[in-house]
Design brief:
Elements (H helix, E strand, L loop, with lengths): L1 H8 L4 H23 L7 H24 L2
Helix pairs in contact: 2-3
């Protein structure tokens, strides 16, 4: 009975796992592409897109971690 009560009180951390996983996959892909393509991110526009996507993923992971705590 106590285990069910404790389990019901735990917040759902699915959003954090999803955004954290996406951030980790993004970091690995970014590292692989950056290591194999010397011209990456292909100009200032590409650099802005990479930075924006990275910032959005970090903010989403942080927000979901804070909100599900």
């Amino acid at each position: 009975m106590l285990a069910l009560t404790i389990a019901a009180a735990e917040p759902d951390r699915t959003a954090f796992y999803i955004f954290g996983g996406l951030l980790a996959v993004w970091a690995v892909v970014l590292g692989l592409v950056g290591a194999t393509q010397p011209a990456f991110p292909y100009g200032s526009r590409g650099a802005r897109v990479v930075m924006l996507l990275s910032a959005v993923l970090v903010a989403a992971a942080m927000a979901s971690a804070i909100l599900t705590d």
